[in-house]
Design a protein that fits this description.
heterodimer; A: 635 residues; alpha/beta; Pyruvate-ferredoxin Oxidoreductase, domain 3; Rossmann fold; 4 domains; 7-stranded mixed beta sheet; 19 helices; B: 317 residues
Chain lengths: 635, 317
């Protein structure tokens, strides 16, 4: 939704002489961005503003703005670092469309946001003005040209002498501007100053009193500037919150899920954007009775985890696309030898090294099918940050029940986005170890496959009578190497049937919107918030569109064909590549579909279309909305 | 009463294990393959040590010698080519009660698994690693291995191996935190057993290279050495393999070598001929990663639950 002033009231603010009458605009939601050169701390400021907003009762979704390099050149159009914070008076599930307010520490980083369509005419821009009086003529010129350009583009530009304001309080402004910006944002959105300062004090408690005091002073300077210079404030009414909430990003949620799932070992190799899951675990896993192993490579990471799993310990490995590719052979072994393992793949852009810090859903098909031969496995995709937590807990249970690997596909959007959700209620049975050291009835083979379900219990080293040699070779019930045709066929049936058994236990997915209509949008993973918001906007204008999110991708949730049959058109919306049907050379015969569309077409024989792209950033709901309106109009 | 000491009674093993308790499937290695001798030595060792079969886990990669776990009636993990060591480390990480043996070959360890070899040596987790080295790929039918001598003809190098072989002993001795390196030859079962016994008791990762021939593709590999016992250098020391008089008679060329002496071990290892057998290096004070891995192992569910709740509370709005 674009910014709507739903009510205007004039008030005098406080009684102080220095304040001026201000206009308070009540709005249902706003998108705020704060961007700077790498190292100037806008990410910290943005995250704090998100946390403070969540604590005041707003719905929040934050998105990190990350340069690909650790130290990109300063004042560079490609080096912007920062945070987008979307706040609302109800739950916020995605990053939204163009920003309403942007604070930029120089004009070049603002251009990097303009380049990705993050601004619109009317966006309120707070621009650091020091560049206008820079000793270098080139910088002064660049600044004044940019300023004129911004005004031409229709932005409402406020120049702020951030550096000067900060220097009144601290000696090194480069290290303090972010807190000044935080003060400005908090004042603009009428955050209670004392609560904000308490939050800032808590945040910097460990950094020493001097730094803590400096940051508090900088935030106050931000408030003071706003009071002196701005006659507008935005009010986003707080939600009625009935339950306890937590606020975190998807990687933190997945890490807490690992702890809550009773997983004892996390074996990993560093890879962006998955590593922060393990950074957090490294700090806390020991307290929860677990250990985190940084292996020599991706292959060793999963091998180590599988060794621990074989020995009766619950294990997880966390990786991203290139790491998944390296782990493929071991994943096949886990399927063949029926070893439980939770694998979290925080997807990034591919192929190859691709877009390490960016958003893509490009690993669906490789996750489903990459392995020598047929390797049926469970694949799930959380659609929210809360689900990043709960799916890990579920994955551990499924891995043990169905005796094999369970892969969780998240992406950089969920991984780094922050949003509040109800505090999980952890149950002690989630933490129960699977290990059993009582004697094993030696007449029961290591793979006593149930004829109907393919399920079997497994002996664990230490269990007397259960001794067996796990092998990746074709094997019979006793894990004896077997090349006989009938045994191989039977074992393949048993491993495959387990997925069918799980599928029978799943419920058909819920349709968002009416159960029938002109168009059904199908998505998976992190796009849920944007898809559902787009659907709601079109429905508000009478469009007969609904959506459906898939959380289980292998096996697929039941009833899809029947649901699809109730809509005139079915299409997927995904963040991965598909050929544009109108492009040169592209025909109906050779067009490559988005990955879920490809898969669903094969599974349902329904003529499912797709709309997908690979911008490296989350899909704004406005883009999806436009596509839906076009589809409805073309029919 | 009856003069029995109570602690003796308590220590009585519930069962006395015999060799048959460790024998798995009938080995399908070629007749004359050295793997048979190593298998027998390991079975004798664990019998002598009276290790419960269910407490033993044999981990291997892929190759002829990696069939090893199938012929033990213990737990076993016959995994992927080159990847025995990460799996073995994972097994060991949270199960200090298990006795871990690793069977790997010259291709498995020194080619496809090289990264894991180097890092497993550095992790130094307690396990016995047997590297069966016959200088050739047998299972895939005679390809050059990293330890093949220059000029060795094979299906991949019909004109002869072009490069000097990698020396697994000098490589291992060059890795930081290496704590046990030994070499033995499959044609002397007594020395194999004595070496493996030292390796098993080592507090850390023991790396034992076992020289062997492949009767099918490398039948004459060690003919020269077997014909002339002077081409073997028997290392002896009170802290190494203590050489029986019969062994000393068999190998007249012996030398006292203190396994604590790394410098000397490296010099001995670097020498192609004579071939050293015995313990080259041992250091039981090297850092052990498995001790770190076992952190929090005995925490109960309630304690862990409390820790999880505390962590979640830190994110409360």
């Amino acid at each position: 939704m674009s910014t709507l002033a739903t009510s205007i009231d004039k008030s005098n603010g406080s009684q102080s002489e220095t304040t001026r009458p201000v206009q308070v605009l009540t709005v249902p939601q706003h998108v705020v961005e704060v961007v700077c050169d790498s190292g100037e701390g806008a990410q910290t400021a943005g995250q704090l503003f998100g946390t403070i907003s969540a604590k005041t009762g707003n719905g929040v979704w934050t998105v990190e703005i990350i340069p690909a390099e650790i130290e990109p050149p300063v004042r560079s159009r490609s080096g912007a670092s920062g945070n987008r914070i979307r706040i609302g008076s109800s739950e916020v599930t995605n990053m939204g469309d163009a920003a309403d307010v942007v604070i930029a520490f120089n004009e070049q980083v603002l251009y990097s946001r303009i380049d990705v369509g993050a601004l619109r005419p009317g966006t309120l821009v707070f621009l650091e003005s020091k560049w206008g009086s820079d000793p270098q003529a080139a910088i002064r010129e660049a600044y004044s040209e940019a300023k004129a350009d911004f005004i031409d583009r229709g932005y409402v530009v406020h120049e702020v002498a951030m550096e000067d304001e900060c220097l009144k309080v601290v000696a090194d402004a480069r290290r303090g501007k972010n807190m000044f910006a935080l003060g400005l944002m908090c004042a603009l959105y009428e955050r209670d100053k004392e609560k904000v300062l308490a939050e800032v004090r808590a945040k910097f408690k460990k950094k020493g009193e001097k730094l803590q005091a400096a940051n508090v002073a900088l935030v106050e300077a931000g408030y003071a500037w706003t009071e002196r210079h701005l006659d507008v404030r935005y009010r986003i009414p707080a939600r009625e919150i009935q339950e306890e909430l937590v606020v975190m990003n998807g990687n933190q949620a997945a890490a807490l899920g690992v702890l809550a799932a009773g997983i004892e070992l996390c074996s990993m190799y560093p890879i962006t954007p998955a590593t922060s899951v393990t950074h957090y675990l490294a700090a806390v896993m020991e307290h929860a009775g677990g250990f985190i192993h940084q292996a020599e490579d991706e292959i060793a990471a999963i091998g180590f985890a599988l060794g621990a799993s074989y020995a009766g310990k619950t294990a997880v490995t966390v990786t991203s696309g290139p790491g998944m590719a390296l782990k493929t052979e071991f994943i096949g072994l886990a399927v063949m030898a029926e070893l439980p393992l939770v694998i979290i793949n925080v997807q990034r852009g591919g192929p190859s090294t691709g877009l390490p810090t960016r958003v893509e859903q490009g690993d669906l098909l490789s996750t489903l099918f990459a392995a020598p031969g047929d390797a049926p496995k469970i694949v799930m995709a959380p659609t929210s940050i809360a689900e990043c937590f709960h799916f890990v807990v579920m994955a551990r249970q499924l891995a043990e029940t169905f005796r094999g690997p369970v892969i969780i596909l998240t992406d950089a959007n969920l991984a780094t986005g922050q949003s509040p959700f109800p505090r999980p209620r952890v149950r002690s049975e989630w933490l129960a170890p699977p290990i059993d050291q009582s004697d094993w009835d030696s007449s029961v083979p290591a793979y006593a496959w149930d004829e109907q379900t393919g399920l079997s219990a497994r002996p664990i080293p230490g269990q007397k009578g259960g001794e067996y040699v796990l092998t990746g070779l074709a094997h019979d019930e006793r894990s004896k190497v077997a090349y006989e045709s009938a045994i191989n066929q039977r074992a393949m049936i048993r491993r495959s049937t387990k997925l069918a058994v799980l599928q029978k236990a799943l419920k058909p997915p819920e349709v968002h919107g009416d159960p029938e209509g002109d168009l059904l949008v199908v998505g998976w993973g992190s796009t849920r918030g944007a898809i559902e918001e787009a659907v709601d906007r079109v429905r508000a204008d009478g469009g007969k569109v609904s959506s459906l999110m898939l959380r289980f991708l292998s096996p697929l949730e039941p009833g899809l064909k029947e649901i699809f049959s109730r809509f005139k058109q079915v299409m997927t919306v995904e963040i991965n590549y598909s050929d544009d049907p109108g492009a040169p050379y592209i025909t109906e015969e050779n067009r490559r579909y988005a990955q879920l569309a490809w898969y669903l077409r094969a599974r349902t024989l329904v003529d499912i279309d797709c709309w997908s792209k690979v911008p490296g950033i989350p899909l704004p709901p406005g883009d999806i909305e436009r596509v839906l309106r076009q589809r409805l109009a073309s029919n | 009463m009856f003069g029995l000491k109570l602690d003796w009674v308590c220590d009585l093993p519930p069962q006395h294990f015999v060799l048959e308790d460790y024998e798995g499937g009938t080995p399908r290695w070629c007749p004359g393959c050295g793997d048979h001798a190593v298998l027998t030595a390991v079975q004798k060792l664990v019998r002598d040590e009276q290790l419960p079969p269910e407490k033993i886990t044999c981990v291997s990669g892929i190759g002829c010698s990696s069939r090893f776990p199938h012929y033990m009636s213990t737990y076993g993990f016959h995994g992927l080519h080159g990847r025995a060591l990460p799996v073995a480390c994972g097994v060991r990480s949270r199960r200090p009660d298990l006795h871990v043996f690793v069977a790997t070959g010259d291709g498995d360890c020194c080619a496809i698994g090289t990264a894991h070899w180097i890092h497993a040596i550095r992790y130094n987790m307690k396990m016995t690693v047997m590297m069966f080295d016959n200088n050739i790929y047998g299972l895939t039918k005679m390809q050059t291995s990293p330890t093949s001598k220059v000029g060795q003809t094979s299906n991949t190098h019909p004109g002869g191996a072009p490069l000097p072989p990698l020396n697994p002993l000098t490589v291992t001795l060059g890795i930081t935190n290496a704590s046990f390196v030994a070499q033995t030859v499959d044609w002397n079962p007594a020395h194999v057993l004595a070496t493996l016994r030292k390796a098993y008791h080592h507090e850390g990762l023991s790396f034992v290279r076992i020289l062997q021939r492949c009767p099918h593709y490398m039948d004459h590999l060690w003919d020269e050495v077997q014909a002339d016992p002077n081409k073997i250098l028997l290392l002896e020391h009170e802290n190494g393999v203590t050489a029986e008089p019969s062994l000393k008679r068999l190998f007249p060329n012996h030398r006292v070598h203190d396994p604590a002496d790394l410098e000397s071990a490296r010099n001995i290892a670097a020498c192609d001929m004579p071939i050293p057998i015995g313990i080259l290096y041992q250091n039981e004070s090297a850092a052990r990663y498995d001790k770190l891995c076992a952190v929090g192992l005995n925490q109960g569910v309630e304690e862990r639950l409390a820790a999880v709740q505390r962590e979640i509370d830190r994110f409360m709005v």
